[in-house]
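Worked example 3 (structure in, sequence out).
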């Protein structure tokens, strides 16, 4: 299989090279954290860094089991650190090391150490990293393959609709590109899912009821793109005979492979505390969990667009405009872009509905409707309707002033 370079993440690592920051690479299992470390090490060697300046340890490898003990690890690493040139240290799946923050913080004090670590989401939640690491750090949050990366991984294509169908049917996890049949992919995703639920979430959070956890997972996966709250999830599940309280739902959702997106009051330019939406990290997992009822072209596209905005380093919110909703408000520093997402707007009533909320926004920031329609780009008094697949591929570059084709 062709190695996918994951350029956006590689460039981030390059930008922080030799800076006295701990580089913390986070992300769901099997999203490519180990691979990006390998790609970056290869890049370092091309820049003239010698092999003896690079230390890589994967703590899921039984060869390094004894180094899970912090005293053994420090004794192993210390003599390998150069005093007169930089030593690049890579710790993969660092959560397996006892009291690992003490080791990381200590090594980061050394002026000739450039430190990179990975950890799965359940162990390295963004909210916990600052508590774990007293030194300065930067988090590089990884996702599975974007649509553009997936197309690169299959060697390119002149049939984007076919590639998109494969992308949402198979999975965005990189390893699935090496699998041939739906059965193989299903078995692989089931293994990833069970590892995350049992090995990461249940053990990390010490959750007592795996069946209830799986009920929350399936309910959330079935409701991507719907306005939800933890109270509403608890109420609906309880009404269906699966009694659960709001606090338990909150505990489960902080450990899952879902992303919560808060609502943003466009007029007041402030976040709202209630009723956000949830999106899943991979549509293939959703298909595995829900089976035949998983297909909803509009909500799946909305989920994919949300993940793409995260890939593009945007802060993403659900927009509220009076009684109307904007699917996504994407904020990049001081720039704002508004998006509506629909599978198709060829029906006049659907187009009118999608335009309505954007037409209520009075500012001059760009506004777009993304659809799967293979029609020419259209303009509705400054609101651009464009093909979502071309946008996902980066063929249509967006900024505040114009659309390039």
């Amino acid at each position: 299989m062709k190695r996918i370079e994951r350029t956006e993440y590689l460039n981030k690592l390059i930008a922080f090279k030799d800076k006295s920051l701990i580089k913390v690479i986070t992300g769901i299992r099997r999203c490519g954290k180990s691979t990006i470390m390998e790609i970056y090490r290869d890049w370092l060697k091309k820049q003239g860094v010698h092999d003896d300046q690079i230390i890589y340890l994967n703590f899921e490898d039984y060869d390094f089991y004894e180094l899970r003990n912090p005293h053994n690890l420090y004794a192993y690493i210390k003599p390998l650190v150069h005093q007169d040139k930089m030593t690049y240290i890579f710790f993969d799946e660092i959560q397996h090391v006892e009291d690992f923050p003490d080791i990381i913080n200590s090594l980061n004090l050394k002026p000739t150490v450039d430190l990179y670590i990975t950890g799965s989401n359940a162990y390295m939640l963004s909210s916990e990293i600052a508590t774990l690491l007293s030194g300065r750090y930067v988090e590089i949050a990884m996702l599975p393959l974007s649509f553009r990366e997936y197309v690169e991984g299959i060697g390119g294509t002149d049939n984007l609709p076919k590639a998109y169908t494969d992308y949402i049917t198979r999975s965005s996890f990189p390893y699935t590109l090496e699998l041939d049949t739906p059965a193989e992919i299903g078995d692989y995703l089931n293994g990833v899912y069970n590892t995350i639920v049992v090995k990461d979430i249940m053990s990390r959070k010490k959750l007592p009821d795996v069946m209830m956890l799986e009920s929350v997972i399936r309910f959330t996966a079935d409701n991507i793109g719907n306005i939800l709250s933890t109270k509403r999830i608890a109420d609906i599940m309880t009404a269906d005979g699966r009694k659960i309280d709001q606090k338990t739902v909150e505990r489960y959702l902080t450990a899952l492979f879902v992303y919560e997106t808060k609502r943003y009051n466009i007029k007041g330019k402030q976040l709202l505390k209630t009723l956000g939406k949830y999106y899943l990290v991979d549509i293939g997992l959703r298909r595995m969990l829900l089976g035949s009822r998983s297909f909803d072209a509009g909500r799946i596209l909305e989920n994919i667009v949300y993940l793409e905005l995260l890939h593009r380093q945007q802060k993403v919110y659900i927009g509220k405009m009076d009684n109307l909703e904007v699917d996504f408000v994407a904020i990049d520093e001081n720039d704002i872009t508004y998006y509506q997402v629909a599978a198709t707007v060829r029906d006049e009533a659907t187009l009118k509905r999608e335009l309505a909320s954007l037409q209520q926004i009075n500012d001059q920031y760009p506004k777009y409707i993304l659809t799967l329609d293979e029609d020419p780009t259209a303009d509705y008094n400054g609101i651009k309707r464009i093909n979502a697949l071309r946008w996902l591929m980066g063929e249509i570059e967006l900024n505040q002033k114009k659309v390039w084709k």
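Notes: The two ends are 31 Å apart (CA to CA). The CA atoms of residues 68 and 97 lie 4 Å apart.
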